[in-house]
Amino acid sequence: MQLFSYHNGIPAPLPEPLKDFSVDQLQSLGYNGPFPAPQYNAKTQKAQWTGTEWLIRDLSAEEIEARDYNRLLSRADWQAFSAGLMSSNAYAKARVEASSSLSVNVDCIELVAFMSDAKAGRPYVEGINNCLASIEASITLTEEDKKQLHDLILATGLGSILTVPNYEPEEEMAQ
Questions:
Q1: Distance between CA atoms of 167 and 59, rounded to whole angstroms?
Q2: What's the confidence (pLDDT) of residue 172?
Q3: Among 133, 97, 101, 100, which residue's Cα sits nearest to residue 114?
Q4: In Å, how far from its chain's centre is CA 3?
Q5: Residue 17 scores a pLDDT above 60
Q6: pTM, whole model, 2 decimals?
């Protein structure tokens, strides 16, 4: 596919009404090109437009890790996790305890704030995990409470970034 750059912007396909224009006509409108679509390995490289040409750059291990982590965060359903968490047995127990424990009260307030940020697209995963750990250390959760949280975490796509403190799920039997 041939791509054209409008005023040195990132090349893209032409708008439908311009597809039959000649290169000279397109240049008079501010288009440059055509430029072929860059060929690169998106897992390990990045294509960057300089305004006149494509440069293919290898990603560092840190960039690949950060990109993969951000992809995990973006695929998570923070809305559903927040709703499920707030209606869970564990959170109900934490709210009861929060009325008599300042530390649990603070943890619950911070957790709600962190969840608001996560739902707005700015998750602070370490803070959420820390709140869950602090709350779990302060209240008595049953194995069923912890399983409910674990299942919620998995169901909302957060299994690789959030943990239920002091819970080891039973390994499912291979079928």
A1: 36
A2: 53
A3: 133
A4: 30
A5: yes
A6: 0.63
